[in-house]
Specification:
alpha+beta; Nucleotide Exchange Factor Grpe, Chain A, domain 2; three-stranded antiparallel β-sheet; 2 helices; 6 strands; 65% helix
Length: 188
Amino acid sequence: MSDQEHKDKEMENDTPKQEVENGTENINDSQNIENEIIESEVDVLKDELGKEKNNFLRLFAEFENYKKRTSKERIELFSTANKELMTVLLPILDDFERGLKEVEKSSDNVLLEGVRLIYNKLKNTLSQKGLKVMDVKQGDTFDAEIHEAISQIPAPSKKLKGKIIDTVEQGYKLGDTIIRYPKVVLGN
């Protein structure tokens, strides 16, 4: 082979190598562009996922608050319903106590036992439903937040000045809520 032929052959061999290298570079460039596009799409999707996750967490928290609020409202509704019923029954209980005191004055023991039995049953039933008598004693300190003063009389002793002398009407609580304040007489 002559030098010329040899050079021509090398040139033939070089040309395809360059074309292959150029083609490979083009492929690499297009893959890099595709990878960049995919990465930018992934970033966008991550951002959207983060926003949706944040929205989900907020919605979940709102739902939990809603459940707590409705549960609390339902409990308050039941206690309010009991409160209204108890408030209506308190004058009846007062009348029953007055009637029991009058029956105790009579000599009819059978009647006394019958009335006492019914009174105790009513009182126990109301206490099972959460009604509690507010214990107010003579000599207790008057508190305007838990007592209702209906009158003042001269104190029998200096110790009772500004203190509770007598309870005219019992006070009652339903759970921790006062549904009727005790009506008291104060020493002056």
